[in-house]
Known about the structure:
The protein is α/β, with parallel strands linked by helices. It has six helices and six strands, in the order H-E-H-E-H-E-E-E-H-E-H-H. It has helices at 4-14, 31-42, 55-67, 131-138, 147-162, 168-179; strands spanning 23-27, 47-51, 74-77, 91-95, 118-122, 142-145. The chain has a six-stranded parallel beta sheet with strand order 3-2-1-4-5-6, with helices on both faces. The two termini are 29 Å apart.
Amino acid sequence: xxxxIEGFNMSIQKSNINLLNKKVLILGAGGASRAxxxxxxxxxxxxxxxYNRSTDRAxxxxxxLKINGFSQEIVILDHPVNPFENTNSExxxxxxxxxxxxxxxxxxxDLNAFPKSxxxxxMVYNPPVTKLLKQxxxxxxxxxxxxxxxxxxxxxxxxxxxxxxxxENAMRQGAKLALS
Length: 180
């Protein structure tokens, strides 16, 4: 079992993020990114772009998606920019990289290149406010960290292991307590 997709899906629903017809920029092409990309495509995002330091790895992700039946057009970027410059549609930026785990990390992207209608989802949950989320809050963008994804993954994993329903609320409280 892989609970990344279920954790991501639970988290974006709790954050009131609707993926339908959204323009999405995903930063990263690793395992967490695969979950986000898959869910965005399943939920009917309008456009999807992926930036990864290694375009080879991003292209490998693209091939995996094609093998698994995803036929939507996906743009692979070789540097972190706004691929949707000429749009008035809301853009969702998802950070699925490890940038932000350390306080000394730079933000994976500069939000000044984006219009006012941006939503930022950073999968990093510790620290709870990364440089990316700090900039998003300063610009009054809707934003969320990855704690909800962690909680969703943990709850679903425990359900699989035990065969019992697990309280997402109890898991969230436990995670918050552990991180404080």
